[in-house]
Amino acid sequence: MNHFVRRNLFAFPCQAIVAGLLVLCAFAAEPAQGASSGAIKRVESGVQITTDTCVLTISPITATAFRIRCAKGPGVESPSLVLLPQTSVPAFKVSHDKTSVVLATSKMKAVFDRSSGALHYTDGSGKTFLSEAPGTRRLEPSTVQGEPTFAVEQAFDSPAGEHLFGSGEFQDGFLDIRDLPRRLTQVNTQIAIPFLLSSNGYGILWHNYGLTDLNPANERAVLTRTSTGNETTANVTTAEGARRVVRREGEFTGGLDVPSSGRYAFMLDVGQKMARRYHVEIDGKVVVDFANFWLPPTTSWFGDLTAGHHSIRVTGAQDDQPVLFFRATADRTVLRSPVADAVDYVVFGGPTADDVIATYRQITGPAPLMPLWAYGYIHCRERFHSSQEILDTAEEFRKRQLPLDLIVQDWQYWGKYGWNAMKWDEQYYPDPAGMIDRLHAMHVKLMVSVWSKIDPATDVGKQFTAKGYYIPGTQWIDFFNPAAAALYWKNFSERMLSLGIDAWWQDATEPENDDLAGRTTFAGPGGKVRDIFPLLVNKTVYEGQRKDAPTKRVFILSRCAFLGQQRYASATWSGDVGNSWETLRRQITAGLGYTASGLPYWTTDAGGFFRPGAGQYTDPEYQERFLRWFQFSTFSPLQRVHGFQTDTEPWRYGDKVEREVRSYLDLRQQLLPYIYSQAAAVSFQGSTLMRPLVMDFAHDDQALTQKYEYMFGPAFLVAPVLEAGAVRWPVYAPATPGGWYNYWTGSRVASGAADVASPLEQIPLLVRAGSIVPIGPVEQYAGEKPSSDLEIRVYPGADGDFTLYEDEGTNYNYEKGMRSTIQFHWDDARRELSVGQRSGEFSGMLQSRQFKIVAVDSSSAHPFEYEGKKVVYVVPR
Fold first, then answer.
1. Which tens digit of pLDDT belongs to each residue from 463-499?
2. How far is CA 320 from CA 203, 364, 671, in A?
3. Structure pTM?
4. Which residue ranges does the record assign to the DUF5110 domain (predicted)?
5. Hey, CA dihedral for 410, 415, 421, 423, is it positive or negative?
6. Which domains does the chain have, with CATH numbers?
7. Within its chain, how far is the Cα of 831 from the centroid?
8. DSSP assignment, residue 352?
């Protein structure tokens, strides 16, 4: 846990005059003016300003992160479930004059305008980077499930040219979400993270656990069903297992009127917990058309309208009750929550995107290192039906020399014992512990699906029923009750962890499809906490394993997440998505939106979850999509395949698919020294592995519009192919000193628009000049061949640095300092590679090893023995 350094809180004597401003001493109170009807009071944590609306508290958490809270009185606040306990306060000063109240740290200021009541924020040089829109702070009494609450809202100015990212994982296809309406709820394929990252170098964390509307549209067009279509049947997943369902389409019509021509923002709400199709026509023109077996209930877009009346036609499920929300676009960012205790947010001052994310992790918790093998290949399918199937599959991977690190048992292994009984049906899994031992003998790890829903008729469920530990009316465990969470972990530990299982798949942790809405939890009305359930599930499992298996690193794959969940060794995936090209495109924007929200580990079902049935094994069109998706997965934080009612093993698709999959499995293994070193940067520096271009090229306007390109660590620019039949692919290479290299050919690529060769076997992949990339051997599993021999590949054209990180890979000794780093520096003018003295040590560390320096513009390689001492090599052209 990070602790903040305590400094002198009271830097100036009472009523000292500094730069013409009256500086307040501790706990001094003076009347405020204008929008402030009461007192200004310095408190230990910051300053309180009594306004006509509320008591406004400004609290510095770090020198570049301020928490703002507008509440009806300074009453006792419940401890945050998101923010770490603050053990110290950074040094700050409070001053005021007739026009403003200022709280300043060494790097940032919050300025309260006493006339308008609005806040704005400046950096250390005095430049304003964020401003509240005057008159938009709202705190209005309301009710939720019969209990008193507040409806809150805050708007911020968003200047022209700004780009905004984040808010979690969404399926609407947008990466830049400036002014885009979104409803932040937790459902299958959608993850609500109320965090925004700006190209202007700031971030906002909206500190609310319930539904939040981002940039809401208040005008609405209610649509009427005018016809129904033909029935169709589909096999889908539900919280009760796979089901064959009958669906019928419906057509809905209506209209809207706008007073002026211009650009408008739209949000469609289908009126059900989940959608199946978004098809919207305005004046006969299709503006949205996207379908899947499961979709979030809302989707959003922008469009141009002329003044006057417009006809609307929506096609969806016949039971939909669609409403189309709309408004003119605006230069504002608005956050609104219908259930809240206060207007409550944290503003981060950057100045870079990496600084924002690092500070976010500092105050919500660092992301611990996953086991080394988690960064290798994860093989999954829906589903394995017996222990013998699992063992046979693992053996076949080894026989074919296809790298494999982790194999996954999906749901329903509990069989006759009932849903999530935490017991294996011995008819099909006669000896789970023995199966795991045999997997471990093959150096294969096992992940198992464990739900937060338990059938009350099971032995475990009866314990929860007896104690009243279910959320009433559901089979979801009430993790808001610490005693219920403790009982869940007790059974989990005794029945599952004790078998030697290596990793956990916490499925449907939303809980499934926003199921807390209208429920009552131990924490009160579900509406107050409807988005934070996944955080508590992951907390229970992480803290439980750290206690009961303290030497074993935790690895959790969760279908949902919330602010701060990275501290629980939790990764997410994008849920039960389809397999179309458009679906693949939307997974890229979904994943980049998620990592822009501060959580580093994300993946997807490569090839899509819902697949085209038995024909997929021979269909060349699907196989092309699958291979392009698998290439994208190789350059995702986790490399993983999954599929509904599918045997997903690569050899089932024929020699060509197996060959291409093998090449990317091999590449992933070779890149593990690079990936694991970047994972260490995630843990120790608050970095991000899968990086939207705002993180590296915030001042390149063209880069900020690229929603299907991203950086994978500091070296690689990844541009997945997203159309059938492509043999060349347009890539925008952002401006960077020295330009870029084509990874596959080693040829130079200038910054700017590029046309890159993209045969089926190659994902467009550029490497930034100045990069230093360690390349390891091809392994069948992570750690098979200790990295005694590493190629150190240098991409000349600019100076560069790289830190090679290593540790034992499976335990938490690194937290005690048992780890090592080696610093590499490339001096481009001198063509010198400096290999620094090794720092640190750990059990099993290689004392001597072979490094082979390869500059991609040189025809020769330079091997040498490295024994931990600094060496410098000149690399000729």
1. 999 999 999 999 999 999 999 999 999 999 999 999 9
2. 36, 38, 47
3. 0.95
4. 790-856
5. negative
6. 17-133 (2.60.40.1760), 219-330 (2.60.120), 376-586+602-690 (3.20.20.80), 695-764 (2.60.40.1180), 786-874 (2.60.40.1180)
7. 38
8. S
